[in-house]
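Blinded run. Sample ID left blank on purpose so nobody reads anything into the name before looking at the predicted structure. Input follows.
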Amino acid sequence: MNCELKFIVIGITDNPKPFFTPEVLEIIKNGRVFSGGKRHHEIVAPLLPKDAHWIDITVPLDKVFEEYNGQWSMVNGQCIIVFASGDPLFFGFANTIKRKMPEVEIVVYPTFNSLQMLAHKLVMPYHDMRIVSLTGRPWQEFDKALIERAEKIGVLTDKEHTPSAIAQRMMEYGYTNYIMYVGEHLGNPELEKVTSLSLEEASAKDFSMPNCVILDGETVEHTKTFGISDSAFALLDGREKMITKMPIRLLTLQALELPKRRVFWDIGFCTGSVSIEARLQFPHLQIEAFEIRPECEAIIKENAHRFGAPDINIHMGDFLANCDSVATNGTPDAVFIGGHGGRLKEIMEKVLTVLAPDGVIVFNSVTSPKVSTNSRQLWDEACKELDLRQEAPLRIQLNDFNPIEILKCKR
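Blinded prediction complete.
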């Protein structure tokens, strides 16, 4: 057992009388420093040596790892033994150790993770299951699985992302063709429970922790729309001219190079058509949508629910005032300016203070004989003064509408 900078990570289930191999029992018997969650401590406490030192794994984790580091000089080279749920390499604590202390040696003794155990109880093949962890994580990967119409989704939950909260979110955005299976206290012969519910039933029910979820959507529609019809959107005052038309919208998304981008800003979203189309076509994106007209907030929310486009972050008010605070959530590398209120250069100048080095800005200029100074002129002047490199514009005209140029620039 003597070693230097070594963790032994042992997977356990919720069974209050865990089974360990003779090898693992010998490791526990000879251990000195142990760690895990409070629930893990309750389960393994009867097996620990009398002089065992226990380190609770709680947030913030930095303090936990400070205590780990402090123990190396106190345990005469012995390993730190960590208990973790299921397979410690499956969204588990062994991954955290590798990230925080990449130089240490790690030995893992896994058991089945909770989603495997739930699939076993259901006699459900799980090799084709999309796995999402919501344990201490945002909704983004879960939303991505829904948008991509994954047929079978396994979800690791927490106290915020409960089965009922998951069901409510799915119903809110129209992803209703799923059956939800919930496994509670899996591995605990006294408390273990597996339930099959509709989303409506799950949304109104409380479940005990720990639990996990499998969503089965064999009837999920697989067809994915490429381009949403303009007439399907809720509009601002019913004005068709206040929406980026579908062909222009798709060409705009192409110009933004979204497949390789990470954070997309939509400035002046109005109906939200560009943000929504981007969310559905490129669900990996973080999308921040800005608009100054207060009446547009209800419109983008209605459209997002109508088309199943969750996780668009909406920012109401003056973009110039909101920009800096939103940038703390992630540096934009793709920016579309859909509206500027006569302040195009100011907006572009502000964007440049936060734009990623390889970022791109796209703007659609409308040529109208009724306007003496058109938006293309404003764009050209701003690009010149801000020393931005323009790419060749794309000019297009739809039906009787004024011609539009899709303009693009980089540093």
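Unblinding after everyone has recorded impressions. The chain is about 30% helix and 20% strand.
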